[in-house]
């Protein structure tokens, strides 16, 4: 993809983010932070590419370490969000 | 020329679907009823992104297999994935999964701000690692072009645009990491929440930021590697320097801001890799954190710049607080409080960070239940900056099984105090201070506050009369005729009130 199409996706996604986040109820702001934490660990994609690539051992090990760190975040972030959301109950 | 690997449309589509899942995950949070489905969609999106990457980037091995047949031997050439690399990656994911799941299961809800700060630091560090790996092995990331010189071997150079993206990604990642580590230490109490003010810190910070930008440009233009490493080192330093002058009460802003940074770091890496899922996520998380920071700043009537500049509450903690303790105030007992609330038609409970510290949320819910048995309407009023992160009080109340339709935001409930018999303030202080409405000299002037003093009676739980809130200002509410001070540990006091209600 060329730089301009990537930039277009980015700018449009910022607008989507703006409107979606304003619609989040303030009561769920803590789960919002936890889940955004989990999804920002999509950076694992980069770590996986580095870990899978042969040729430069240093890059490979950094990639594997990145996979560990991002995985902590992914599993921990989603699990803790799930735990919090399960606590929100309606009256009755 | 820029892309080493041909872009498979199915792969691009998979990343796009992952990005859409993430958008829907946040969309689900618009109501508690749809939130869990949203979270599951987030997991699906992550699964798609991870599997797509693994199966498109794993190295392949050619394996020759001989199959003996009746009269002659077949041989086949099979292409299999490199099982060693695959196993290494699975092991790395498994290690992360065990650590992450155990932490998520064990963490106390009151410790959520620390946990989120710790998670932010991991995203930041992961971004740095990915950036460095991309620098060391640009061909794997498809960000280099081969240069064939007249004499000698062809060599790979990283494209200048990718260098800028990488440099910025690594810088933001490093800032997120060191900043979050400091935020974690402060929130966890391992480090004093008091602002640490270095002389000339604004000059140092601005100079460091300028140096980082200059070095990124230098890195993009030149052929040397040192500016890249200098960017990494300086960014770690600036993250540290930016957060140490910020005080405990400003932590909701800091945590949101670091949340935003972790998003921008992911987005910058997404630019480097041309990966839709990363760019969409980065934009979502980046704007999410930015909006939360804005909401927190607005709730404190402070500009973002003044929070970042730091030092709130460091200088004016003495003044107003000390002299005012001589003023007359009324002290109440648990029995008085129980009696007053049982006679009431409506009670509004105002929780604050002190409730979290005392772990009083369960006792508080029990008190609410007792009151409801007596036919009292019980509501909870939450100020946006109550606690140490956005929505902190809501989670604690939810943990204690308080139904979420009993919990109201400031603007929805503030008009009700005038028709309320008892306002029950537990562990909150600055967010109830009427000086914010009347006293132009007060450091919290202009901050939206809960109008507790308009209730017929205010019950104010506080550890002692000596201390003041984080803003370091005295609270007029303590000395009003309709206020009764309940001086004790919040949890103990609430438990005594519950006992007195029997």
From TrEMBL, chain A:
EC number: 7.1.1.1
A matching Pfam family: PNTB_4TM
GO cellular component: plasma membrane
Membrane topology: Multi-pass membrane protein
Reactions performed catalytically: NAD(+) + NADPH + H(+)(in) = NADH + NADP(+) + H(+)(out)
Ranges that cross the membrane: 6-25, 32-55, 61-81
Entry's localization field: Cell inner membrane
Keywords: Cell inner membrane, Cell membrane, Membrane, NAD, NADP, Translocase, Transmembrane, Transmembrane helix
One MF annotation (Gene Ontology) recorded for this entry: NADP binding
Entries under InterPro entries matching the protein: NADP_transhyd_a_C
Domain NAD(P) transhydrogenase alpha subunit C-terminal: 7-90
A biological-process GO annotation: NADPH regeneration
Function: The transhydrogenation between NADH and NADP is coupled to respiration and ATP hydrolysis and functions as a proton pump across the membrane.
Name of the protein in its database record: proton-translocating NAD(P)(+) transhydrogenase
Organism expressing this protein natively: Sphingomonas hengshuiensis
């Amino acid at each position: 993809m060329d730089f301009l199409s990537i930039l277009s996706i980015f700018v449009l996604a910022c607008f989507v983010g703006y409107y979606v986040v304003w619609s989040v109820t303030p009561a769920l702001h803590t789960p919002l932070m936890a889940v955004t934490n989990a999804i920002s660990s999509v950076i694992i994609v980069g770590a996986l590419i580095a870990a899978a690539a042969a040729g430069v051992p240093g890059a490979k090990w950094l990639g594997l370490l990145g996979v560990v760190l991002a995985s902590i975040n992914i599993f921990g972030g989603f699990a803790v969000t799930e735990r919090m959301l399960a606590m929100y109950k309606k009256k009755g | 020329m820029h892309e080493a690997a041909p872009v498979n449309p199915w792969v691009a589509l998979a990343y796009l679907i992952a990005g859409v899942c993430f958008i829907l995950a946040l969309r689900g949070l618009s109501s508690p009823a749809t939130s869990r489905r949203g979270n599951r969609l987030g997991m699906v999106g992550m699964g798609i992104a991870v599997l797509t990457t693994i199966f498109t980037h794993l190295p392949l091995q050619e394996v020759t297999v001989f199959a003996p047949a009746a009269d002659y031997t077949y041989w086949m050439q099979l292409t299999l994935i490199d099982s060693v690399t695959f196993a290494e990656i699975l092991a790395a994911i498994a290690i992360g999964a065990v650590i992450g799941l155990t932490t998520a299961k064990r963490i106390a809800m009151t410790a959520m701000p620390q946990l989120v700060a710790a998670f932010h630091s991991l995203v930041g560090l992961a971004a740095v690692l990915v950036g460095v790996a991309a620098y060391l092995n640009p061909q794997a990331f498809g960000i280099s072009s081969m240069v064939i010189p007249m004499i000698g071997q062809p060599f790979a150079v990283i494209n200048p645009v990718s260098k800028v993206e990488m440099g910025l990604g690594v810088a933001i990642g490093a800032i997120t990491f060191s900043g979050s580590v400091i935020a974690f230490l402060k929130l966890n109490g391992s480090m004093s929440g008091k602002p640490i003010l270095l002389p000339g810190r604004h000059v140092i910070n601005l100079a460091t930021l300028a140096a980082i930008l200059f070095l990124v440009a230098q890195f993009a233009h030149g052929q040397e590697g040192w500016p890249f490493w200098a960017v990494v080192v300086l960014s770690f330093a600036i993250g540290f320097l930016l957060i140490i002058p910020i005080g405990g009460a400003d932590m909701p802003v800091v945590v949101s801001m670091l949340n935003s940074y972790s998003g921008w770091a992911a987005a910058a890496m997404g630019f480097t890799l041309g990966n839709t899922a990363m760019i969409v996520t980065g934009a979502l998380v980046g704007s999410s954190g930015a909006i939360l920071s804005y909401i927190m700043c607005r709730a404190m009537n402070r500009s973002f710049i003044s929070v970042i500049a730091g030092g709130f509450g460091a200088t004016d903690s003495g003044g107003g607080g000390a002299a005012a303790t001589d003023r007359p105030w009324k002290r109440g007992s648990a029995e008085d409080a129980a009696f007053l609330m049982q006679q009431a038609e409506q009670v509004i409970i105002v929780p604050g960070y002190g409730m979290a510290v005392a772990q009083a949320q369960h006792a508080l819910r029990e008190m609410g239940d007792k009151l409801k048995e007596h036919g009292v309407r019980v509501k909870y009023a939450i100020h946006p900056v109550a606690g140490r992160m956005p929505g902190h009080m809501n989670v604690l109340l939810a943990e204690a099984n308080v139904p979420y339709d009993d919990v109201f935001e400031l603007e929805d409930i503030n008009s009700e105090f005038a028709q309320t018999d008892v306002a029950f303030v537990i562990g909150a202080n600055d967010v109830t201070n009427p000086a914010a409405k009347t006293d132009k000299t007060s450091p919290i002037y202009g901050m939206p506050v809960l109008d507790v003093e308009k209730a017929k009676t205010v019950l104010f739980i506080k550890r002692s009369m000596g201390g003041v809130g984080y803003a370091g200002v005295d609270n007029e509410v303590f000395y009003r005729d309709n206020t009764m001070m309940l001086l004790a540990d919040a949890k103990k006091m609430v438990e005594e009130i519950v006992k007195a209600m029997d």
